[in-house]
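Hi,

I'm pasting everything inline rather than attaching a file, because the server keeps stripping attachments. The sequence lines come first, and each chain or strand is labelled.
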Amino acid sequence: MLLAFACGSRQQAVLFENEDDLPGKRVAVQTGSVYDLEMSERKDIQLYRSNSATDCIASLVSGKVDVYKDDEVILSPADQRRQGIRLVARGDESFPCGFVFRKEGVELAEQCNTFLAEIRASGLYQEIYDRWMKMESAEQPHIPDDIPVYHEGVPISVAATISTAPLGYQVGVGEWEGFEVELLKRFAASVKRPLEIKPYDAAAGPAALQTGRVDIWFGCIFITEERQKQFLFSDPYYECRSAYFVKRENDSSKGGWEALKHSFHKNLVEENRWRFIVDGLWETLILAFWSLVLGTVLAGVVCWMKLTRYKWIQKICKIYTSLMHGLPVLVLLMVMFYVVLADTSLSATTVAVISFSMVFSAYVGEVFASAIESVGKGQTEAGIALGFTPVQTFIYVVLPQAVQRILPLYKAEAVSLFKNTSIVGYIAIQDLTRAGDVIRSRTFDAFFPLIVVSVIYFLLAFLLGKGLELLIKNKQQS
Amino acid sequence: MIEVRHLAKSFTTPSGKQLHVLRDVNCTINKGEVISIIGPSGTGKSTFLRALNLMDPPTSGEILLDGRNILEKGYPLNLLHQRMGMVFQSFNLFEHLSILDNVTLAPMKLLHKSQKEAEEEALQLLRKVGMAEKAHDFPANLSGGQKQRAAIARALAMHPEVILFDEPTSALDPTMVGEVLSVIRQLATEGMTMLIVTHEMRFARDVSTRIFFMYEGVIHEDGTPQQIFEAPHRSATKTFVQRIHKLLFEVDGPDFDFFGMYSKLGRFCIKYNIAGKMEAVDQIAHKMTEELLPDYRPLTVRLTHSEQSEVTALDFMIENLTSSPFDAAGFDRSSLDVIRAKSKEIIEEPTSRGYRIKVLV
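And the predicted assembly:
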C-alpha cells in the first residue's frame, strides 16, 4: 500500500497543448481563486476544486485531473521538475497583485506604498524580483541575512495563504522564504516593527483580516474590483499571468524500496523537515493535554449545573450542551476564533483549547451527571445514616462509583478529542496535521507525509487509549 | 432517651393536595427498649422512623434526644446519625466496596480508627451476623438476606445508641426473612435499643418489649405485645392484629342493586379463602334483606372476616331501632329457621346507633 502510494499511480497521458484543448478535460483549480470563477462558467469541462495548490498538484500527478490552472508563479521551474509537472501554456489574462489591508488600515497601507515606491526607485525591487522570479537553476534562493529584524514594538501580523515557492513558503517552522515574504520583511524593517507570519487556509484569509486577527493578508492576491469594495490594497508589486500545468511524461520512477527511501529522505531529512513533524506533534500534544485538563474541569461544572436544584441553571446547561452537541467541532472552532473571541488577545492555541474543552465538557459532563444519578439515592442515604456529611458521602460513596462508570466513555471521548485537534490548521495553528501539509507543499509528495502523520496519530491514539484502559483496570481492582 | 412531642409531617402532592402523613405523634423511647411499629400500609410507620433521625425532617413537633431538641437549627446532624443507626429495606450497601470495606469505611473515616483496628472489629461484627466468610465479597454477589445482615453489621460498627430498622425484611424472599430476623432477635437479647417497622407479626410479638400500633398518622395504641395482640383496646388495632377484613353495603330502598351485592359478597369469600361459606353468606344475605326485613330501610349490611380467628360474620344494622324487628307484631320467628340452619349463631343486640342482628357463619 505504502509503496503503491510512493510510486504514484500510472495514468495514460491525455493530450493538452493550449487553451483550445480544454473541452472535455478535467481541470483543477484552487477554491475561490479567479480561475475557479472563470472555470465554473464553462460547461464543457469537469472542474475539481481543492483548498491548496499542493492538493491540486497532487491530483494532477496522481492522474485525477488532466490540467491544473493557476498563477504561473505558483511553482518555481525547479519545483515543477521535482514534482513531475510542467507549465504547458500561459493564459492571456494577467492580474496585478497587492498586499491586502483592512479598510481601517489606511496608515499601514500608505506606509507600504511609500516603501514600495522607494525600493522601485532605488532599484532594490528589481534585485529582489530577479532573485526570485528569474531563477532557473535547481538551487533555491534565500532572503539575504542583512535585513534588520526588530523585536520591540507592536508586531505587524500577517496571514499567508500561500505555501509554495517562489512567492511565499516555509523552510522551517516559522522560517519563511519567498518573493512576497522578502518584500514584507523589508517593509517591516522600514517601519521598525517586528513581523509575524501565520499560515492560513486560502478561504480563511479574508476572515482573518476582517476580524482583526491580522493586519495584512498576502499570497498572490489579485487586485479585483470586488475585493476593493471590502479591503484596501497596496499598489501592485507584481503582474501575475495565468498558466496551465500538466503532468510531465517519462517521469523516471524508482523501484519500491528505493522510492520509499527517496521519499523518506526528501520529506523528512532534506532541509531538516522532520522539525515540522516534531514541532507539530508538540503543538498537538500541548493542545490535547490542556483541552483534556480544562475539559475535565468544565465537565465537572456542567455536571454540577445539570444536577443543581436551580431550574434556571439547568436551563442554561441544557442550552449549552445542545449547542455543543449540535455544532460541528470545526464550525465551533471557527466561530470561537473569528467571532466570539475575535476581539480578545487570546492566542489561537488558547482559543482551540477553550473550544475543544467546551465540546468535551458537554459530552462528558452530561454522562457524568447521569452516572452520579445512577448511583442511587439509597446509598447516599446509607452514607448519611452512618454519620457522614452530604459532602463526605459524595466523596466516599457516590464519586468513586460514578468515576468507575464513566471511565470507558471518558477514554473514548479523550481519544476522540485528541484526534479532533487535527482541525486546528483552520485557525493557523501548525499542529501535526498542518506539519504534514507544510512538508507536502514543499516536497509535493502527496502521500509520504500523510502516511507519516497517520501513523503518528494512530500510535498516539492507541497509546492514549491503552493508558486510560490501564487506569480503568487499576481502578476496578482497587 | 428519646422523647417525641406532637410530631407532624405533611406533603404537598403534585396535584396540589395537602397530605398529612403524620398528624400528631407522641411517645417516649427508653434505653434498652425494643419497639416494633406495626400498622396498615400508608399510616406513616416508615415516615415516622425517617422523621426520627431527620432523614425526612418532620414539618412540626419536637424530638428530644437526651433532653435536647434535635430539630433546633444548628444541631449537628452527622453526630446525630452516628448515635442513631439505620437499616434500610433495600440494604443500600456501598456497591463499589467489599463487605469488609462497607463495614470499616465509616469507623475509619469518622471515628479515625486505624485500618487494622477497624478491620478486626468489622470481622468480629461480621462473625456475629454470620457474614465473616463473605468479608471479601462484593455486595453484587450476595443474596438479599446476606446483604441485610452485612448492612446490620455496618450499622453496628459505629456503636450507635439506637438502631432504626425500616422494614428490614420486606424486600427479601420468604426463605431469607428468618436469617435476618434471627440477627435482630440476637441484638434484642443483648439489650440494643431498637425501633423496628415490620410486617412480621409473630416476630414483633416475640421480640419486642413494646408495640406501637400506627393508624392514620398517629400512634393509635401503644402497649406491650400481650396487650396489643391479645387484648387490644381499640377497634382499629383489633381489626389489624386479627387481620379483619370488611365489606359494607347500605341497602337504602327498592332501587338497591341486590345482584351486585351478592356478587361482591361472593368475591370477598373467594378472596379470603372462605369459598366454603359462600353459599351460606349468599342465602343469609338474600333471606334477611329481601324476605325478612324488606320494610327496614336504610339497612346496613356488613360482612367481616378475621383471618386470625377465622370468624366470619354478617351484620345487619337498622338505625334508630331499639327492639328486635323479629319481635314486632305479626312476625313469625319460625321463618328464622332457615337462617339458623345455615349459621353458627344469631346474636340480636341494641347498640347506640340502632338495632343489630349479627349472624356468625
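The CA atoms of residues 380 and 393 of chain A lie 6 Å apart.

If the labels don't parse on your end, tell me and I'll reformat.
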